Amino acid sequence: EASDFCLYWKWRHLYVPRNYDPTLHPFEVPREYTRALNATKLERVFAKPFVASLDGHRDGISCITKHAKSLSTIISGACDGEVKVWNLPRQECLRTVQAHEGFVRGICSRFCGTSFFTVGDDKTIKQWNWEAPGYGVREEPINTILGKAVFTGIDHHQREGTFVTCGQTVDIWDEQRSSPIRSFSWGVDSFSCVRYNPVETELLASCASDRSVVLYDTRESAPLRKVIMQLRSNTLCWNPMEAYYFTCANEDYNLYTYDIRHLDVPVTVHMDHVSAVLDVDYSPTGREFVSASFDKTIRIFPKDKGHSREVYHTKRMQHVICVRWSADNKYVLSGSDEMNIRLWKANASEKLGLLSAREKAATHYNKKLIEKFQHHPQVRRIARHRHLPGDILKQKRELREMREAQRRKEQNVRKHSKPGSVPLLTEKEKHVVAVVE
Amino acid sequence: MLVFGFWTTKICNTRNCFNKIVLIALFSLTFHCNGFASIVCPDLKKILTKFDSPSRWFMLGKKCKVPAGARERLKEAIAISEAMSEHAQKQAARYDLLLPEDAGFLEGDEDEDTNTISQADIADAVDITSGSKYFNLHLSQFGPYRLDYSRTGRNLLVGGKKGHVACIDWQTKDLKCEMNVMETVNDVKWLHTEAMFAVAQKRWLYIYDSKGVELHCVKKFNDVLRMQFLPYHFLLATASATGFLQYLDVSIGKEVAAICTKMGRLDVMAQNPHNAVIHLGHPNGTVSLWSPNQKESLVKMLCHRGAVRSLAVDKTGTYMVTSGLDRKLKVYDIRAFKPLHSCFLPAGASCLSLSQRGLLSAATGEIVQVYQNVLGSNPVSKPYMAHRLRGQIWGLAYCPFEDVLGIGHGEGFTSMIVPGAGEPNFDALDTNPYRSHKQRQEWEVKALLEKVQPELIGLDPGQLSKVDQASFEQRHKEQIEALGFDPLAKDKFKPRTKKKGRSSAGAIEKRKRKVAHEDQRDEIRQSVQERTEREKELKEKSNEKKLGNKSTLDRFRK
Question: Where is the Sof1-like protein domain (chain A) (predicted)?
Answer without folding.
Answer: 346-432
